[in-house]
Amino acid sequence: TMDDETHPRTLYVGNLSRDVTEILILQLFTQIGPCKSCKMITEHTSNDPYCFVEFFEHRDAAAALAAMNGRKILGKEVKVNWATTPSSQKKDTSNHFHVFVGDLNPEITTEDVRIAFAPFGKISNAHRIGQELEG
Hints:
The chain is α+β, with helices and mostly antiparallel strands. The chain has helices at residues 2-6, 22-29, 58-68, 86-91, 110-117, and strands spanning 10-14, 35-41, 50-55, 72-73, 76-77, 79-82.
């Protein structure tokens, strides 16, 4: 449904300790609101485990995101974020801005532009439009 994409209910919880279980996550997160499910992903042996917690209500998921991000679970600070699905990624433009920078000196590279804009947030890509537009 459209509502799902504007009001997501699933959280990504990462940087988990290897001792964290789905039961523990559910115990912590259900204190904030009723959870529908918790799916632990551990097959990436080199990386820390992570999980997806699905709530029944968007507002509970949002409250859990605010409450749990950066909290320590079994001694490790967990990262909590909205779980993005490929379909909603295309539509989520809430924090995405296209900035056009004109009149660049020819010596300036894409990397220079990235470095200049880095303090303002994550840059998904920088394109240098060349001289082909002039004339």
